[in-house]
Amino acid sequence: MTDQNTVATNKSSIKKAMIKNLSLAITGATLLVTSSAIFSRPALADRSTCVQNIARGAYQQAGGRRNVMVFNLNQSYSHGLVGDDFRRATCDGIPFGVWTFSSGTFTNRGDGGYINWTFIGNFRRTGHQGGTVVFSPIR
After folding, report:
1. pLDDT at residue 87 above 80?
2. Residue 122 to residue 29: CA distance in whole angstroms
């Protein structure tokens, strides 16, 4: 009788372990799919890198003596930049404005994040969620 109980207990344990492993596999697969949908956005990551690289390049071209703003031209914005030079660039098919300037104010009225804007220089952020950037001359 003991051998039959041991076999029954082992079968029960194996069944529980299989159910637990299946549950973990399903949970793991769900997490993988969810995290892929939320976090793995290669196009956005590439655009973010592109935007930051444009800003770095413009800053280097200015010899580190001028402020730089790179902004998605499909978003709403306003600015009062002094002594600005403007050019266009494209990241992931999206048009961006590239300003190099001595001082002024730039307000992002659209979405933030490095996929839509970045800036380098002597600045402080103000306003709702830091959407306004006040630049001073670089000395």
Report:
1. yes
2. 46
